[in-house]
Design goal:
Elements (H helix, E strand, L loop, with lengths): L6 H4 L5 E6 L4 H8 L5 E6 L6 H9 L1 H10 L2 H9 L2 E6 L7 E6 L3 E7 L5 H5 L5 E7 L6 H16 L2 E3 L3 H7 L4 H17 L7 H8 L1 H6 L7 H10 L10 H16 L19 E4 L2 E5 L6 E3 L9 H16 L6 H13 L3 H10 L12 E6 L5 H12 L7 E2 H5 L7 H11 L8 E6 L7 H13 L7 E6 L11 H4 L2 E6 L13 H6 L4 H15 L3 H9 L3 H13 L16 H17 L4 E2 L7 E5 L12 H12 L9 E5 L2 E5 H8 L3 H56 L3 H5 L4
Parallel strand pairs: 1-2, 2-3, 11-14, 11-15, 12-13, 13-14
Antiparallel strand pairs: 1-4, 3-7, 4-5, 5-6, 8-9, 9-10, 16-17, 17-19, 18-19
């Protein structure tokens, strides 16, 4: 057994290549096969062997035109001289991918799951059976002959020309419109001559809207669907006016070239991981993991259990009661965005069409969970988000899509752009371990702005988990980025296991996609039937309808009070950062520049001098600018900032404390006034004591005076003569 061999290293010593395989583009043929082989014969089979892909392969005229117009001269020459022959299945689908490489003496046969696509050759886990033999060895001849016979049947009887060699001479020197007419003629001639066998039931799944809404079908791009509808009636019959059909098909193809970005509708087969959710005809279309077919989302309320809802609530609560600091608000807002993600594009369209003055670029196309170490960001995207949306594929790492963690971000931007430009896929792209230089890269930030400003069709969103270490890049807080990227910060660590209220294993094992399917399906229904009242609120808050649906879901199970204190307000990273900044400013200053006005227990002032020691605030102009910046950190609607004056600002005590999440200023106010109260009480006691002493002294003086008066009277009475003394007084 060979483990992770390079496929092309195994086939270097051969000069002829025959195979049946899905091929994502001509480039892999041009770059890998043509330089190695004198003769290449390929039947372009289907990766998942689905009818919709077969229809897309034949009827997607614009794709073939773009492939031909972008092909190299060598590629066209090889097609014209017959040393490269491309055909594709016309009737029975080829389930097996196999390759035969040979020279005059030896051969190798490969058989298994691998296609000739970049992801199959570099990323996927593929299994190939390999048989190497000699043509003159009797033991090897039967297996060689059997595979050659099989390929000849597949190549000559079971397939038709994908590009006829005679076509090459006709298209040389022609512009895109002329080439479109030539390729359209070939396609319709093959159809008219019955070279390709099309199942009428497969056609009506595309042309008949009633069938499409009720049956499972394989999804095709919008351009392909329009071409099929131009050729066939709703009942699946070919239209009779052939000239009109040719003109309509050409017009549809021309229109696909006139798109602003001139990007082709991206095939699901070229994306990794394969998207599961798409959008078509006002419906969310889900890929069934068992038969790989798509069917309209239908998930009524009764399929959501109370246990589903309770487990979801407990996951949010675990970010409060299992952590050293409450971060449940961030977790809930992250889930709200996740449940809205498949229809962000639709809400952006409503913003564009609305009479209300709000721009669609106010709705972020990306969400970034920021954290340091084990703070819960990866736990959310890997262990909670993916099973919550029904995605059981492996986590995608940033280093995988960017080819490493270097400073260049071109490959990652290209990968994400491939998804965003699909025009039909709506599954969120979840990326773990985003490098923090991504949001500072000019390539990435320009792409983020371009995506937000120019993509107006169906698209997905990106969800990242980013490790932000101290000493690394500061978070890009420029307004042009923060309105397009939804930041959520997770910085608190986890409590010891014996102190955590909720068991992680129970939470993760009880998680499923029931709530996600119900909420997203209900959101799509309401957006398709949007009332003026809901539009008004949706324009003010793009998550409004999602939150309403979730609250109604809680109420349905008598859980209306759960998460009620955080469910209505969206977490705001900038406000959260400002909250921490103000808290640290006051604490580091130790309240030296905080003051109160006598008799006012509702307001306090902060002196401008508090900013003197801040880095960069050394001049008069810088200090004044810092004063302005700090004053503007408070949300206006919160009523915290009362007014700003030359030497500082006046703020509300209780509203400031509510903003920072603790009674910092109120406690300081009470502490100061308790000291004053104690001092006043002592002064009052001393005054009362002095008054009592004074009153006692006065009373004692009064008593002394009264005694003196009594004694004086007594003395006077003793000296006064009596009656007998006066009678017998002698002269």
């Amino acid at each position: 057994m060979l483990y992770q061999p390079d496929f092309f290293d195994l086939i270097n010593d051969f000069d002829r290549f025959n195979g049946v395989s899905f091929v994502s583009s001509f480039k892999i043929i041009e770059r890998q096969l043509l330089p190695r082989f004198k003769q290449v014969n390929l039947v372009l089979g289907l990766e998942d062997q689905r009818t919709g892909q077969n229809l897309n392969q034949f009827f997607n005229v614009s794709r073939r035109v773009k492939e031909l117009t972008s092909a190299s001269e060598d590629f066209l020459n090889r097609l014209e001289d017959g040393t490269l022959q491309l055909r594709f299945t016309k009737d029975q689908l080829f389930h097996t991918k196999y390759f035969i490489v040979e020279n005059n003496d030896s051969f190798i046969i490969f058989n298994g799951s691998m296609n000739l696509t970049k992801k199959a050759l570099t990323n996927n886990h593929e299994m190939l059976w390999m048989y190497a033999g000699q043509k003159d060895n009797p033991a090897d001849q039967p297996i060689y002959a059997a595979h050659q016979q099989l390929f000849q049947q597949n190549f000559t009887e079971d397939s038709i020309d994908y590009v006829n060699r005679k076509l090459i001479g006709q298209i040389r020197g022609k512009d895109k419109q002329a080439i479109t007419a030539i390729v359209t003629d070939q396609t319709l001639d093959q159809l008219q001559n019955s070279e390709l066998h099309i199942n009428p039931d497969d056609i009506t799944k595309i042309t008949n809207a009633d069938q499409q809404s009720s049956q499972r079908f394989a999804l095709v791009p919008d351009t392909t669907a329009r071409v099929i509808k131009a050729i066939y009636t709703a009942k699946g019959n070919k239209r009779r006016n052939h000239d009109q059909v040719r003109q309509q098909v050409q017009q549809i193809t021309y229109q696909s070239f006139s798109d602003q970005d001139e990007t082709e509708t991206v095939s699901a087969d070229s994306l990794c991981p394969t998207p599961m959710w798409s959008y078509q005809g006002n419906q969310i279309i889900i890929k069934d993991s068992h038969d790989q077919l798509y069917h309209p989302l239908s998930f009524p309320l009764y399929q959501v259990s109370r246990e589903d809802v309770v487990n979801f609530i407990n996951i949010i609560k675990s970010f409060k009661y299992n952590k050293v600091k409450d971060e449940s608000h961030q977790a809930l807002s992250a889930f709200m965005y996740l449940m809205t993600a498949p229809l962000i594009w639709k809400i952006r369209q409503i913003y564009r069409q609305s009479n209300y003055a709000r721009s669609a670029d106010q709705i972020p196309l990306s969400m970034v969970l920021i954290g340091r170490g084990t703070t819960g960001k990866t736990l959310l995207v890997r262990d909670y988000f993916k099973p919550f949306i029904g995605d059981h594929s492996s986590s995608v790492q940033y280093s995988e899509i960017n080819g490493g963690n270097g400073s260049h971000t071109n490959r990652a931007v290209g990968f994400l752009n491939n998804y965003l430009q699909s025009k039909r896929f709506i599954s969120p792209m979840i990326i773990d371990e985003l490098n923090d230089n991504f949001l500072h890269s000019k390539v990435a930030t320009n792409a983020i702005k371009q995506w937000s400003n120019t993509i107006d069709d169906i698209h997905n969103v990106n969800i990242f988990a980013m490790n932000h270490n101290a000493g690394g890049h500061a978070i890009n807080n420029l307004e042009e980025i923060t309105k397009r990227v939804y930041y959520l910060s997770f910085e608190a660590g986890w409590l010891p296991l014996d102190q955590q209220r909720y068991d992680y294993n129970i939470l993760i094992n009880s998680l499923n996609d029931h709530i996600y399917k119900y909420v997203t399906g209900e959101l799509n229904r309401r957006l398709n039937q949007l009332s003026g009242f809901d539009e008004d609120h949706l324009i003010s808050d793009y998550l409004y309808l999602t939150k309403q649906i979730v609250k109604e879901l809680f109420k349905n199970f008598n859980l209306a009070n759960e998460l009620a204190d955080i469910i209505d307000d969206n977490y705001n990273y900038k406000v959260d950062r400002n909250r921490i900044t103000w808290k640290m400013l006051i604490r580091d200053d130790d309240f030296k520049h905080v003051a109160f006005t006598n008799g006012d227990d509702q307001r306090f002032t902060v002196s401008k001098a508090i900013f003197n020691n801040l880095k960069g605030s050394t001049t008069y102009e810088n200090i004044n600018q810092t004063l302005d910046n700090y004053f503007n950190m408070f949300p206006r609607e919160a009523g915290i900032a009362i007014y700003q004056y030359d030497n500082g600002m006046m703020l509300s005590i209780d509203k400031f404390d509510h903003f920072i999440g603790e009674p910092l200023i109120r406690n300081y106010y009470n502490q100061l006034h308790q000291q004053e109260h104690d001092q006043n009480s002592m002064s009052a006691y001393l005054k009362a004591q002095a008054k009592r002493d004074e009153e006692r002294s006065k009373r004692e003086e009064q008593r002394d005076q009264q005694m003196q008066e009594v004694l004086a009277k007594l003395a006077a009475n003793q000296k006064k003569p009596g009656l007998f003394s006066r009678l017998f007084h002698k002269d």
